[in-house]
Design goal:
Elements (H helix, E strand, L loop, with lengths): L6 H11 L9 E5 L3 H13 L3 E3 L2 E6 L2 E10 L4 E3 L1 H6 L4 H23 L11 E5 L7 H11 L5 E8 L5 H7 L2 E6 L19 H9 L1
Parallel strand pairs: 1-2, 1-6, 6-7, 7-8
Antiparallel strand pairs: 3-4, 4-5
């Protein structure tokens, strides 16, 4: 598949695939910070829909924070890779310590991004959950499961790129998957963007204010 110029271009391409939702009063777009919010901004504008955030965090292994042993959502929902945890010989205490660290970061981001705004009521809404790409799927899957508990009418997952190996799992977790590319082998999300500069907290705050 061709590379996207940047996250904004990926968002515009996804918005074109989602145009059937344009102007519907029940639709809300949720971006996963940080990069997913940049993509989601383009979708929300094109669909004339409100934009908000849904915060999830990868739970990294104690010896290597980049190695995901699971993920946690803002409501406390957790998804763990028990096979990997056993392979790394991690104790329940070590895993819990990592989970608590990510919950503290989620709480920090929620306070920063929401600026005292109440979370949106998602019951009976059509929720379009957006990220800038999926690597392992852990953070997105835990987000989808947490959203499901909020009783929306429909959950749409919209992402530019994800590994082909997890597409069927993603489809099983949502009502509709809008995916622009599922290449194999899958190297890294950033490989499929010409500009994949890290998004700052302040950029997310500015987008939500706008």
């Amino acid at each position: 598949m061709r590379k996207f110029r940047d996250r904004a271009e990926a968002g515009q391409a996804l918005a074109a695939r989602l145009r059937g939702y344009r102007g519907r009063p029940d639709v809300i777009v949720l971006g996963i910070p940080r990069g997913g919010v940049v993509v989601a901004e383009q979708i929300a504008r094109a669909l004339e829909a409100p934009l908000d955030v849904f915060v999830t965090r990868k739970i990294g292994a104690p010896v290597n924070e980049e190695l995901a042993i699971g993920a946690v959502a803002s409501d406390g929902s957790v998804l763990l890779d028990h096979n990997l945890i056993r392979q790394l010989h991690l104790s329940e205490r070590e895993v819990e310590r990592q989970r608590q660290a990510q919950m503290r970061e989620i709480e920090r981001r929620m306070a920063l991004f929401r600026q005292n705004r109440a979370p949106p009521d998602l019951e009976n809404k059509t929720v379009i959950l957006v990220d800038d790409g999926i690597a392992t799927g852990a953070t997105v899957i835990v987000a989808l499961r947490a959203l499901r508990a909020m009783r929306p009418r429909r959950i749409v997952l919209a992402v530019p790129v994800a590994p082909g190996a997890i597409v069927s799992q993603l489809r099983a977790e949502c009502d509709e998957l809008v995916l622009l590319g599922a290449p194999e082998p899958f190297l890294a999300v950033g490989y499929f963007f010409e500009d994949f500069t890290q998004v700052t907290d302040q950029e997310v705050v500015n987008i939500l204010r706008a």
